[in-house]
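Folds vary. Our protein:
___
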Amino acid sequence: MREHRPPRPRITLNIGITGHRASVLSPEVVERTSPIIERVFADLRAATEFLHVENRDLFSAEPPQLRLHTPLATGADQMAATVARRTGFEVRALLPLAADDYDADFKRGREKREFAQHLELAHEVFALPSEGADRNAAYVQVGRAVVASCDVLIAVWDGRDGNGPGGTAYVVDLALNLSVPVIHVPIDRDTGTPGEPRLIFGRDIIDYSARPLEGREDVTELVADVLLPRDTSERGHALEYFEEQEKTANWRIEYPLLLSLLRVKKLPKRFWHQTSIADDIAYEWKDVRDPGPEETRRPFAWSYGWANFLAIRYAQLFRSGHITNYVLSALAVNLALFGLIAPAIKIYLVMAELGVIGLLFCNTNAGTQGDWHRKWLQYRYLAETLRPFLYLKRTGLVGPPFRNEYAHAPMHRRGGADWTRWYAAAVWRQMGWPNGELTSEGIRQLATDAVTEQLLPQAAYHKVNAERMHKLDHRLHEIGNFLMGAVIAACFLYLIGYFVMHDWTKSLTGPFIFLTAGLPAIGAAVFGMRGHGEHLLAASRSAHTVEALTGNVTRLRQATQLDALARELEASAGTMLADLNEWTASYSERSLEIPA
């Protein structure tokens, strides 16, 4: 089905669970704790449904998607799975080992039967690789996977430091460090009594703050902070994005025409036509070996496709607009100077100059009113933020690459996090998670897919871009040098003529002024194009990105363990986002203005 507007994400909430096993949570404690956990899940569901109704302009009409990610260990994990199903959550079993191997952790009889029942009832099952890994390492890894998968972590925890990596304290500490909100249901080991849920936040379990969740309103506030844009400005930009249209005709061709005239890049045959989003998606996905299930592929493909399409469109509008401004400014100066050569038509030249100045203001106003600059930067940022999602998701071990850019307290985010991160996070939540068992062979295949389908194409793009930007800057530099050389030559000729053929040379004073003042005006316009475009800086950034991606490729090809693969994929995403951050910083203050 074709999307006629940028897709609104489906409102989705992912919950993780960590807590003590049956050795601490006896059946009696579970019986007392279960109603509290069920109330928390019911409040989370009600809050999500309420926010969906109240924010229909931000989300699709599909009902909320609610998931619990649980390792299904005895105690808190299985208790949460039971109440999650009762309150309308899908349950994703996130196992530290292959199911048959993990089964050995459960005692014969009731424990094994209950584990098998929960496994059978799970909507999805994903087993992390266990080949060559000891059990403690596997439990550490599944804790990381739970935190990576969730928007909110529920911790049934006695508050103690724990017995080492992989336990409840470790998972809570990891969540706090990554700014994941933690709903803590305290357990008094001495009395076996559960306490009322509270929200804890901070940097780690040594130094954290807490406040009670006193009712559904507090839970709604928490879920709103997780799922909604940060402020009205971000919300407005998101709504504006959702109203964009797919316009494949773009007659602002000044920038591609400049590249063609300078022999930097050929002008396409249908230079006014931009490839449709559907065709772009078909092209992008034709070489993807494992596109994944529909629930993963579709939200990602169309969200990225729209962002990329609009970024290309507004980039051409903005770049063409600023080239036109410099050309019109130079033309206005030369029209004024031409009156020295043809004073008889001065009135027409004045009218023409006013017309050119009018066009200059109209072009600038169109860019300002159309918000070309902001949209180009933000839509490109959105597209490039989304780009690595498919491969990061398939590890099952990492969260979105921008998660750590949020503030540590869950009720406040940094001012720099704009609506694109909100939208990207919503797409990330909506995308499905990996299923089945991830083996050593699967790890190597994922590394190969990431290298061949994303990193090498990105490195190739940046290599070509570095060459093009360097060539463009060099050609503009050559034009500027030629113009200045022409002015110097004209000055020398005038001086020679002044003494050799004085009267004749003096009669050419008007044309001489036209040349020696008009050519520098054109040179200034060319210099403005160079300075505004920062082509050498762009070439340098692309060259450095190629070098960094080449290193990522080498290390990915050597990755045989999931942990190493996940770290390197995160590093690769960081490499691409680092280039994007530098690029955005360079262009953020270069809005479309009248050259002065």
Remarks:
- Strands lie at 12-19, 65-70, 90-95, 124-127, 152-157, 182-188, 193-194, 198-202, 208-212, 436-437.
- Residues 406-417 have pLDDT under 50 and may be disordered.
